[in-house]
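User: Second chain of the day. Same drill as before.
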Amino acid sequence: MGVRGIISFLFRRSLEIAVVVALIGLFPRLPPFVNIKEPFRVAPLLPFEGKLALKESFGDVEILHKGEFVGPESFAELGGELYTTIHGGDIVKLSGNHITPITKFGKPCKGLYEEAICGRPLGIDVDKNGYLYAADAYYGLFKVDIKTGGKEQIVSPLQEINGKTPKLFNSVAVASNGDIYWSDSSSDFKLENGIYVLLADPSGRLIRYDAKTKQNTVLIDNIHFANGVSLSDDEEFILIAETARSRIHRYYLKGPKKGTHDIFIDGLPGVPDNITPDGKGGFLVPLIFGIDSQYPALYQTAGPLPWIRKLVARFMAITEYLIDTLNQAYPTEFGFKCVHFIGHFASIPLALQNPRMTILRLNKNGEIIDSIHSLNRKIQAISEAYIFHDMLYLGSPFNDYIGRIPLSKVGWDNLKVEKIKKAPPTATVSETNTPEPVKRSETIKTTQKPTISKSTQAPTTTAKPPASTTQKSTTSKPTEPSSTAKPPTTKTSAPTTAKLPTTTTSAPTTAKLPTTTTKAPTAKPPTPSAGTSQINTTAKPVGTTDTKTTISPKSSQTSTKNTESSRTTDKSDPPNRETSQKSPSQSSSQQQQRVKQFD
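Assistant: Same format as last time:
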């Protein structure tokens, strides 16, 4: 084949390719079924000079949890503990070298290629009450209780907002009044088709969820891949990163510009991702992929030419469609992985990316006040820079580790955080001191010290009546007198009385003692209630120095068991049932006769 043959061959092949390209580009109703018509241009890149001068800052970076998970995208601090989101749908707590799962979104899946089933939490934040809020790319916006792992869906991916459903939940920021600001990266594509978002016309949004009305309001529309959000320290405005255009928007929440928005910073030398406060009124912005003259962003280069972007998007979509159709007929794990790979950000090999990684520090006016860089691929693709105590933690949606470096090593030791601002929610447990239940069927027996009165007759020992209580029945145990003979015990049953009259009993006196008349206190019996037995009033046996009437209400259960009462009396004057039931006049007459006999 001569030179003419080679030229002819190349011409024919080029013509065939041109025909195929024309068909793909011009033929209607081919995937992806979205608008790719709007040309765009990005601002010129900021020069690497002054505060943006290149210098290696990550020589002492540590690599943590290597190979233990993939994709620690974002961080949040709660109660002195650090939390992060990872592939597989999990939020985990990092305690030193320990990894503790907190909650999971989605369903069990076979691998990362099924992330639409697993769930993929991206941005997280906490509120003043200690609850964690997470944006899962596929399942929506959630409120999480880190103590129990319970979660509540706040915004569903099926919920229509201004005529469009959110497809890619990304970042979240919680205000002091409970309102939630979050980003919907695209209304056209999900995360597994993220590259299509860069090629298509913008459809991202900044949305506010009103905690009182439970309504969502679109603050900024048509953002080209809406990404990280962050509130200013005084909540005067909120920032949102526009990843595809390498710039950041500012939306005013207070002041004379309230309800308007402008460009906070433009011409960033890379792709901005999450935005975090620096604790001094400013912000930290990592550029997940660096952009410069040697490593341009091809989708930005093709920005003014929408037909080229459409051609690339259609070629990818048709390839994905063919593989997916074949995989539906003959399903294989390799086929599912290929379908997931095409159009996903993971299909961009890091080896082909810019080796430079940059983190910017911006003030409240959108000015760069410092920058730190990694220039040797030691650490790459950083999506978030988060200050935790005296360390700077570095997350990434692609890496299988977390980077960490002391703030002092990058010259940011003045950003050290000593105080924990937000504590986890504490469960309010009301402790009730419950008294021990009283066993009504049990009677506690107490023995009192006997009282001995001197007289010419045999000594008499009398047990002091026990004090009555409403909870427990106390029965005095009979004691033996000092004589060798045992005193007789008389069993008496409780008399039944509808209403007990007021009783006054004069106490008898013993021999060779002055006559003593003691009136028993008048006791008004309480009205018997349900479950309460009638009142027992028993006159004290003769031979004691005083007389006391005891009135004690008892439960029906106790009174049944205590129908036998013990009484200790003098041997020469045993008590009988008739004496215990005499009227007051008979008792007084008997007393006078006894006194006359002694005289």
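The longest helix spans residues 3-26.

User: Great, on to the next one.
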